[in-house]
């Protein structure tokens, strides 16, 4: 039994490499960087006496066959993850950073915004497709719909745009249909919830048949295991997705647990038609057939337009950008400065809102002073704030 505390990454690998003809168990601190490369080790919190005692007991009682199985898996991985490969990955990361810096050249200029406004006002029909979280408003530290309800500025902007003649405004979000329905009561918007698993073009919601419900129980079981040992994390359950949130988890622990969870879920679901995704402080599992790109394809077919504007901020929105990349009438905008298939970028949601406000005549925004009284009381309170 070899216990390894923090900062001993090389020692842990040397111990594993040395045990070629005999068994043994590696106990490794969850705060050590090597834990992500050596998941077969018994992970402990070195500051928790019970955690150390439990791991030591498990190690001493572990059958020789299980010891050799774990050691073999780690030894095979170490034989591949060489210093040469590490160097290649490091240089690859540097190239990625360079690409991300290059994306700043896509930043919308004042002249480009003015041209967009002119194109919008002279178009015969317009289609505006918008993500919500991170795009129309900033992120909040909880998945609660109440905390993320639209601000008065967001609501007014959408109201003005959707009231324009020959204009279709669609919100394509990962949020649930209940959240979108409550937020946008009274607005003539097309709504797509859970990345397109639910869609509403009029008053009635339509649901796709993704087959995801049969996978939910075992996915949730795995997520609950990580939630129970990760203070500050929580699970959000949707009809066609499960999301593990770790916004409020200590960063070092969050990174390790998210990596472990993604690895375990990927192995568990290898033969299923579902995908495991990394998002902004989330690990999300959803059907592979559910994408925002398919929603955009459907919107383009239903609402032929000579001006299309599409904006989003994360990996799910890249599907929309790819769907529109060959359309010369489409303006695609990434909110944020990471590498993207979008043609343009803005730094934050406030800048996108400013652009959307510039599309309509100034009199339209100033004339809109009333807040709809049909909104649910909680959302109405948020708008008043």
Gross geometry: elongated
Proportion of strand residues: 15-25%
> What characterizes the major β-sheet?
8 strands, mixed
Roughly what percent helix? 40-55%
Distance between the termini: 59 Å
Spatial sequence of strands, sheet with the most strands = 8-7-6-5-4-13-14-15
Find the structural class using helix and strand composition. Answer: alpha/beta
- The tally of helices reads 14
Output the helix-strand order. EHEEHHHHEHEHEEEHEEHEEHEHEEHHH
Q: Low-confidence segments, ≥5 residues, pLDDT <50?
A: 365-371
According to DSSP, the number of beta strands is 15
Mean pLDDT: 86
CA radius of gyration: 25 Å
What are the key terms here?
385 residues, alpha/beta, 8-stranded mixed sheet, 14 helices, 15 strands, 17% strand, elongated
Chart the SSEs and their pairings.
Blueprint: E1 2-4, H1 9-18, E2 26-29, E3 42-44, H2 49-60, H3 64-80, H4 83-102, H5 110-122, E4 126-130, H6 152-163, E5 167-172, H7 177-183, E6 190-193, E7 198-200, E8 205-207, H8 216-228, E9 234-237, E10 242-245, H9 251-268, E11 274-279, E12 282-287, H10 292-302, E13 307-312, H11 315-324, E14 330-335, E15 344-346, H12 349-359, H13 362-367, H14 377-384
Parallel strand pairs: 1-2, 2-3, 4-5, 4-13, 5-6, 13-14, 14-15
Antiparallel strand pairs: 6-7, 7-8, 9-10, 10-12, 11-12
């Amino acid at each position: 039994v070899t216990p390894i505390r923090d900062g001993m990454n090389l020692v842990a690998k040397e111990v594993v490499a040395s045990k070629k003809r005999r068994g043994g168990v590696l106990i490794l601190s969850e705060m050590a960087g090597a834990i992500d490369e050596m998941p077969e080790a018994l992970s402990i919190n070195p500051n928790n006496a019970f955690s150390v005692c439990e791991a030591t007991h498990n190690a001493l009682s572990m059958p020789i066959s299980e010891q050799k199985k774990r050691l073999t898996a780690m030894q095979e991985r170490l034989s591949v993850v060489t210093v040469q490969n590490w160097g290649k990955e490091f240089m690859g990361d540097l190239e990625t950073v360079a690409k991300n810096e290059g994306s700043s050249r896509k930043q919308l200029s004042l002249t480009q915004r003015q041209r967009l406004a002119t194109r919008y006002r002279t178009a015969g029909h317009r289609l505006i497709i918008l993500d919500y979280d991170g795009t129309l408003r900033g992120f909040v530290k909880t998945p609660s719909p109440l905390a993320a309800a639209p601000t008065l500025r967001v609501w007014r902007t959408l109201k003005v745009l959707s009231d324009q003649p020959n204009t279709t405004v669609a919100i394509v979000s990962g949020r649930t249909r209940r959240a979108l329905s409550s937020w946008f009561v009274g607005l003539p918007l097309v709504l797509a919830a859970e990345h397109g698993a639910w869609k509403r073009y009029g008053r009635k919601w339509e649901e796709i048949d993704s087959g995801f419900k049969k996978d939910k129980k075992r996915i949730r079981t795995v997520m609950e295991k990580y939630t129970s040992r990760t203070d500050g994390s929580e699970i959000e359950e949707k009809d066609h997705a499960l999301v593990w949130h770790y916004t409020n988890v200590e960063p070092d622990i969050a990174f390790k647990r998210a990596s472990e969870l993604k690895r375990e879920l990927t192995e568990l679901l290898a033969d299923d038609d579902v995908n495991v995704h990394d998002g902004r402080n989330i690990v999300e599992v959803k059907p592979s057939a559910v994408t925002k790109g398919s929603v955009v394809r459907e919107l383009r077919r239903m609402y032929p337009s000579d001006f299309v504007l599409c904006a989003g901020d994360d990996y799910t929105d890249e599907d929309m950008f790819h769907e529109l990349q060959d359309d010369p009438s489409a303006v695609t905008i990434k909110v944020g400065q990471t590498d993207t298939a979008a043609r343009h970028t803005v730094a934050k949601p406030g800048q996108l809102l400013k652009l959307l406000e510039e599309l309509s005549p100034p009199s339209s925004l100033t004339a809109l002073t009333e807040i709809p009284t049909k909104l649910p009381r909680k959302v109405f309170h948020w708008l008043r704030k």
